[in-house]
Design goal:
25% helix, six-stranded mixed β-barrel, alpha+beta, RlpA-like_sf, 15 strands, MltA_B, 402 residues, Ribosomal Protein L25, Chain P
Length: 402
């Protein structure tokens, strides 16, 4: 499960709204306005709808300087040439994620947002030149100098549910319970299912009902999901169930529980699903092996929001294929990052933005890649576990945040 002050702007609301509509129309309808923060001198040749940024070859010969340190990582300045595949990336896809970050940018990056917004309608060559002119790549390493870590992936499941309980739809998804926060930790998953006092605290807190306990488990693990819900009057609409909190118990993997008992040899979701199909009488025991329980809140899902994922820990919506969850002690939220990862399934060489975190995302070179939503994204995300290298892109002339 992967899970945040707006800077002031000198652009009028009417102008900002117009620019937003233009950007949305030109960037696949998925852009959002960002706060500009403190202004820096424009790097474009001139302002207005004819704005053009310079292109060409960047001379990357300035002295690199020493390594800098974060609580959990070492940042070593390097040349742009070290970034695998940099010249081949579809940078406009990453711009969608960066524009969302500019809605709640970290202070050190807020001054870049004016250019980021204007570059949303620039060419790939202009974006590439601007990146090299304004940002310094830093290879992310562990404090003892290791530059290789691990990439995993997560996604937003899509499910069918009911607003009212029926014989078929009888697995509840709850809001935060009454009096939540008084008792910590709260009841375990097994106690929630069995204890009358836990049931009483949750009475009337049901958001929706699912038909499959494994789907509910997947939703709990991923932390949010899209629900096509049938209302009491028979109408159907799409909503998002977003993360609201947990019972404060540690997450324990059902895959690890099965492996430790020699019940499976393949802990991927296909392997777990095959065991479930053959052992329906033990499913409840497996579910109770994970004491962690997630509570949700309902959010509307319409318009531009349909093109983005849930909000990450930075407080902005995630962009499929361009948002990652990181350890905040290694990389601050909102940081643009070059990611390289090659495994049995896929190879990634691309610009992403650090916008989320998760309880299992711990370490200097560690990332969880937001795949998107639906079954196809879930099938691929469940198979991603491969080597990873990361480079943070930080404004030239600014110290690495401590």
């Amino acid at each position: 499960m992967s899970k945040a002050s707006k800077a002031s702007s000198k652009i009028s609301p009417m102008t900002a709204s117009l620019l937003l509509r233009v950007s949305m129309a030109l960037i696949v309808g998925t852009l959002a306005a960002c706060s500009t923060g403190p202004r820096t001198p424009p790097s474009a040749s001139h302002e207005g709808p004819e704005t053009r940024f310079p292109t060409g070859e960047v001379v990357d010969t300035a002295p690199l300087g020493p390594a800098s340190y974060r609580p959990k990582s070492r940042w070593l300045p390097v040349r742009w040439a070290e970034l695998p595949g940099f010249q081949a990336d579809a940078l406009h896809e990453a711009w969608n994620a960066w524009l969302r970050s500019c809605e709640r940018p970290p202070a050190a990056l807020a001054a870049l947002c004016n250019d980021v917004r204007r570059l949303s309608i620039a060419s790939e060559a202009e974006r590439s030149y601007w990146l090299q002119q304004h940002l310094q790549p830093y290879r992310i390493e562990s404090l003892d100098g290791k530059s290789q870590g691990m990439l995993t992936s997560y996604y937003e499941p899509e499910m069918v549910g009911s607003r009212v309980r029926t014989d078929a739809f009888n697995i509840p998804l709850y809001k935060l319970p009454a009096g939540f926060g008084v008792k910590k930790p709260w009841y375990t998953r097994q106690q929630i299912d069995t204890l009358p006092e836990a049931q009483a605290a949750l009475a009337g807190r049901e958001i929706a009902w699912l038909s499959d306990p494994i789907e509910a488990l997947v939703l709990h693990i991923q932390g949010s999901g899209r629900l096509r819900i049938t209302e009491a009057d028979g109408s159907v609409r799409l909503v998002r169930l977003a993360y609201a909190g947990t019972n404060d118990h540690p997450y324990k993997s059902v895959g690890r529980w099965l492996l430790d008992r020699n019940l499976i040899t393949d802990a991927s979701w296909p392997g777990i699903s095959a065991w479930i199909a053959s052992n329906p009488q033990r499913v409840q025991e497996m579910l109770w092996s994970n004491p962690r329980y997630v509570f949700f809140k309902e959010e509307p899902l319409e318009g531009i929001d349909v093109q983005f994922g849930p909000k990450g820990a930075q407080g902005v919506p995630l962009t499929p294929g361009r948002s990652i969850a990181v350890d905040r002690g290694s990389i601050p939220y909102g940081t643009p990052v070059w990611m390289y990862s090659k495994g049995m399934e896929v190879e990634y060489k691309r610009l992403v933005v650090a916008q989320d975190t998760g309880s299992a995302i711990v370490g200097a070179v560690r990332a969880d890649y937001f795949m998107g939503w639906g079954k196809e994204a879930g099938d691929l995300a469940g198979r991603i576990k491969q080597p990873l290298r990361l480079w943070a892109l930080w404004p030239k002339g600014l110290p690495v945040p401590q």
